[in-house]
Amino acid sequence: MRLTVLGTASHYPTPASPCSGYLLEHDAATVWVDAGPGTLAELQRHRDLTGLDAVWISHAHADHTADLLPLYYALAFGDLPAREPLPVFGPPDLRDRLLGFFGAGAARDLDRVFAFQSLADRAGAVIGGLRLAWEPVEHDVPAWALRAQAGGVSLVYTGDAVLSPGLTAFAAGGNVLLAEAGADRADGSHLTPEDAGTLATRARAGRLLLTHLALGLEPADAIARASTHFGGPVTAARPGDVVSVDPLSVAVPTVEG
Ligand SMILES: [Zn+2]
Ligand SMILES: [Zn+2]
């Protein structure tokens, strides 16, 4: 299994990074996880849009969903070959939110290109060789964490969440824990770097990959703070990182700029 980091920024994209977004791949299966602003362009540095098998959205905040808007335009009106509707796993109100932007008259086209599946209606799915499972987490809107398993390894992504027994149990034993650190100090809706380290320790993660750092939080400081609570490897995700998810995972930057 392989993780490609498309973006990590909090709140708004910068020239250095889109907001939250990742590609998860195993064999021929490709799943786009969170569609933060800027990630659609970054995705196309790595993969053709025709290669997407599914989209998985952790929650409806715009820093995780906004690029579903241009994805719709690309699939509905772009020069891409016709395809079956793209499965979009997300919060229950995601379709209605998108229709709010496009207008009710777009409903037919929206359902022609996207096949919405509510994360509230089921607990997992199999996309090619990728087994996905999800679990509700505590955030200020309905939100879910994701576990992806393939080839005997697993990656857990917190989405946006606070530390909770449910999240700890769900994250148990992941080879890679991709954890947000969107709070510099505890804010009731995001993990701090210390929380991410604590989660990694309690879940016995193989390694901790920090992402979605709070504005102003330097990666080196976030790593140092998380490392006071976790003895395993800690790094901060950067756009272009390609992480091989295995028992001895390493991050390798592959895309310049
Ligand atoms: Zn959020
Ligand atoms: Zn967020």
UniProtKB/TrEMBL annotation:
Could you give a GO molecular-function term held by this entry?
A: 3'-tRNA processing endoribonuclease activity
Pfam families attached to this UniProt entry: Lactamase_B_2
**Annotated InterPro entries:** Metallo-B-lactamas, RibonucZ/Hydroxyglut_hydro
* CDD domains recorded: RNaseZ_short-form-like_MBL-fold
Give every Metallo-beta-lactamase domain span. 18-212
Listed A to Z, the keywords are: Hydrolase
Q: Give the protein's recorded name.
A: MBL fold metallo-hydrolase
Q: What is the lineage of its organism?
A: Bacteria, Bacillati, Actinomycetota, Actinomycetes, Micrococcales
